Each structure stands twice: as C-alpha cells, then as structure tokens.
Automatic annotation (TrEMBL):
GO terms for molecular function: 4 iron, 4 sulfur cluster binding; metal ion binding; oxidoreductase activity. PANTHER family: ARYLSULFATASE REGULATORY PROTEIN, FEMO COFACTOR BIOSYNTHESIS PROTEIN NIFB-RELATED. This is Radical SAM/SPASM domain Clo7bot peptide maturase. It holds the Pfam family Radical_SAM. Gene3D superfamilies: Aldolase class I. The keyword 4Fe-4S applies. SUPFAM superfamilies: Radical SAM enzymes. Residues 84-328 form the Radical SAM core domain. It comes from the Bacteria. It comes from Anaerocolumna chitinilytica. Its cofactor is [4Fe-4S] cluster. Keywords: 4Fe-4S, Iron, Iron-sulfur, Metal-binding, S-adenosyl-L-methionine.
Amino acid sequence: MKQSKYNFFYDFPDQEEKKLAYNALTNSLALMDQEHYTQYYNFASNNITIEDEKFIDDLKMGGYIIEDEMDELKLLELQLFQNRFNRSVLGLTIAVTADCNFRCTYCYEKNSIENTKMNQDVQDNIIQLITDQANGLKVLAVTWYGGEPLLMINVIRDLSERIQKICDENQITYFAYMVTNGYLLTREIALDLKDKLNIQGMQITLDGPEDIHNKRRPLAGGQGTFQKILNNLKENIDVLPSVSIRINTDIDNQDRISEVFQVLKDNDLAEKVNVYLGHVEALNDGYVTCKCLTPEGFSQAYYDFMKENKLDIKKLYPRRFTNYCGADAVNSFVVGADGNLYKCWNDIGIQEKLIGKLPMEGVVDNFKLYSDYLLYDPTKDERCTECKLLPVCMGGCPNRRLLGVENCNHTKYVLEEYLQACAHSIIEERMG
C-alpha cells in the first residue's frame, strides 16, 4: 500500500485533538484523531506498517491509501477521456439571438451585439443535428442563451416542442437551462418555462443594490433595470424553475455584494433562490484588467460573502471534474443565432473562433482551435501533474487556458478555510 498523492491534512480548530483529512481524488472528508494521524504519518513518512485493520479499511475507503500498482494520474487521464469523448450525451448551448436589451459594462459579447435573430433554416438545422444523433443518445442538455434569449421566446417555444418530441420518441433524457437577464420575465413566460419548455433551472444576474446594478447593467437606452428584475422575481418565483442569482464581482462592487443578499431577504426571496458569485474577467477585450479581482482576491471575496450571509458553505465544497465543461467535450457545441458553431460561449461572434456552421458536414473549419480544446491533457502538463488539486480542476477553464489567463481553480486559494467551514457545518447538522 502507499499514500495517495492527493491527500491534504489540516488542523481543525473546533477540535484541536483532531486532524481534518481531505482527498481530492475521492472528495473524501474526514476527522482523524491524533493517534490515528500519527499512525498514518509514520506509514506515509517512514513506511511503518499500520496494525489497525479497521483504520486501514477506513483509509482505503476514503482513498487516502491506495494499492502500490495504482497510478492515480493514469486513472485521471482515463476518466478524462472516457467523459470527453462520450457521444451518448449531446450538449447544445443555443444563442437564439445576438441582440440584447442590456448594455452591461463588462460583457464580453458587447462588441458583437447585432440584430441577428435565429431564422427557420437554422432552427431546422438544429433539429436535424439532434435527429441525426438521436438513435445513440441517452441525454440531451440544452442551454438557452443569447444575447438575451427572452427576446426570442417564440423561437425557444417552437424549438423546445420539436426537441422534446424527438427525446420522447427516442427515450432520451432531456435537460434544459436558461441564462437570462430577467427583464422580460412576464407571468406568461414564467408559467411556460417549467411546464411547457421543461426548463429545470435559470440564471439571472443582480450585481449589487439598485444604484450599483443600474450602473453596470443598464438597458440599451441607459435606463436602470434593477427594480424591473426584482419585481419579476417577486411576482413569478412561485412558478419559476430553480433560480440562481449570479452576482458578477469585481473591484468596483466587491464591497457591496452582500447588499444584494439583504435585498433578497427583504423581499422574501433569499430562501427561494441560490445565490453565487461570478468572477468578472477581461475576456476578449470586453473589460479592463485593472478592474478585475485576482483569482486569490475573488476566492477570498466568495468565502467572505458566504460566511457573512450565513449561506450553506458546503456549496463551495470542492467537486471532482473529469472534462471541465462543454468546451472540452467532443459532443458539445455552441450554436450562434446565425448557425455558426463554436466550442465555448465566450467565443460567440469572434470569426477566428468559429469551428463550423450548420448544417454539420462532419469536418470542422478550424481544426487547430478544435484540437486545442479537445486534446489538452492536464495529466501531461508540467504545471498540473504535481498539483494536489488536479482532480478538482483538471487544468481549469479551457477558454482561459487558450487565452493564457491564470487558470487555477479558485478553491486552491482558500482550501483550508473551505474544508474547515464545511466540516463544522456537517458536524452542526448531525448534532441537530
């Protein structure tokens, strides 16, 4: 037996006689008393045999010790490519329009906003793409995107009906999600989202209290949007699918993000939505770097926000990745309103990031970019192979990697605080 290379051990202030043990490969978290930690340490450092069979079984179960022949990097590589090249799942991010009723200051798409709406030919080509794969599919996951997707709600209605019919006929499990600014979220639309369009979740952004949000996320004409979005949520939360409120965070608003949560509490919404922070970055020349938080700064701001507002810290518990997202999955595509195909939604509207156009002919147009997304192997990357957090990062965001931007998982910077807080929360729950 040998120790896993992905073990972390920290002091646990709540119980000073114990150690907090975490394994990034299995995502195991455990409290280890000092006597057992000493046994483990002597085994790991001096190859002294552990005599306690029950303790050995517990260490094996958590992945803290493994068989001598186990190569954890090879295991990660195998799991990565199994998932990356899995064709039983089709992921489509569908931008039904390139237009938007907002002009957010930091939006990476703002330089490509145009009055392009998805025509019937593109819709038919999307249906053909799904139909061509239907026989071998087990799961279809669609994200409705833009621009602002609710500007084209009728296209979403029509496509959803046709897509769900294909899924029903072929026993395909269908998931749908929507990213919207929430400004056009009428009662009629809200009622349709879950019941008719089978949308399970949606993301809406509020970037601060009213004065901050309105400066950052105004209408195209400059008018504020905060109150309209808030009223739409209040009036429709009873019928909406699961709602996540994203707070895009940078230097300009980091000191006031907790006021968003207070507004939600004041309006009886805090317990009905999931609130999380988004890291504003200077992608595609959409924003100025000097206004962006460093990864370390964002990580600390996120942790402080969760603690200050007494939110469930377990939501920040580090999770395993295989492939990172749709950008590095072979059967995942972003479809622009004009039928252009991309691998990442950050690439929408950038001509040199095109990988093809519907209808698909089986050959990509930008093979170098395509292969850069799909053939990167973090288990062969010198920057990653020695990192003990590789299983919960797997090289990080593919788009940021290609842009040469700092790419480590934000968990890295406050891992000890996250794990201690998660363990404390679990203990409190078990004690009732």
